Amino acid sequence: MISDIDLIFRLVSAAILGGLIGLEREVNNRPAGFRTHILVTVGSCLIMVLSIYGFVGFGPEGRGGEPARLAAQVVSGIGFLGAGTIMREGTNVRGLTTAASIWISGGIGLAMGAGFYLGAAITTMIALFSLASLGVVEKRIARLKRYSELRIKGIGRPGFIGEIGTALGRFHISIKNIVIENDFVQEDHDHEYNIHLTFYIRVPVKLNRMELYCYLKQIKGLESVIWDNIQVIFNNKIL
To answer: Which of 106, 115, 175, 226 has the largest CB neighbor count within 10 A?
Structure first.
């Protein structure tokens, strides 16, 4: 039977490891953050401990039950929880990484509950490295593919997105993808709302950016433009 000290150690360690992954998600403002990952990891750890030690003497001929049977339900159960963090916006799917982090937190909790401390610790480090460091590598690879990120904030009036697309087409800029995010509705302004647009674009070699900026700032409702993390237009002024 497991001792009280060992039980406390496993649960607290699971909370710490899950909290590390959750903290990274919280910092990046993801749907499931610090508390969610701790709860998932600690809950998984407790279920694993219960599977191993909670049914001793209740199995055939006084033996234990089947530890893997109860723990296996954690894997499928976390799948439903992770699905709640996945959102589809048009052709874009968001939240897959957070769903995967919840799933791996469940696995870490199961490993801690079973006493595989080294495996749980190494898995946590690999997960943190993947979440924190590989995102930078992905952005660099995207830049090598010559796709630029154009973020535009403005008033979501009818025709706003179309006018921006027309402006980019005028300068022979190809649009790879668009991500649209809305802030809130202002009831006293004819249902206008703030809109955040992220364009992933391929830019021609010979592009007069200043001419493009001048064209963009004439679009009604446009507030700011950020090109590859550099603000180029703000409050109708070219910076």
So the answer is: 106
Closest CA to 39 of 62, 65, 11: 11
Tell me, what amino acid is at 186? Q
Spatial neighbors of 213 by CB under 8 A, at least 6 apart, are: 225, 232, 233, 238
Q: Which residues pair with 225 in a beta bridge?
A: 152, 233
Q: What is the pLDDT along the chain (239 residues), one digit of tens a residue?
A: 788 899 999 999 999 999 998 888 877 777 677 888 899 999 999 989 888 887 776 655 656 666 777 777 887 788 777 676 666 555 455 677 888 888 899 999 999 988 899 999 999 999 888 887 766 666 666 555 567 888 999 887 888 888 998 999 999 888 888 888 876 555 455 556 688 899 988 888 888 888 999 999 888 888 899 988 888 888 878 87
Domain boundaries, the chain: 4-132, 144-238
Is residue 129 packed enough to be buried (19+ CB in 10 Å), middle (13-18) or exposed (0-12)?
Answer: exposed
Nearest to 33 by CA among 19, 43, 14: 19
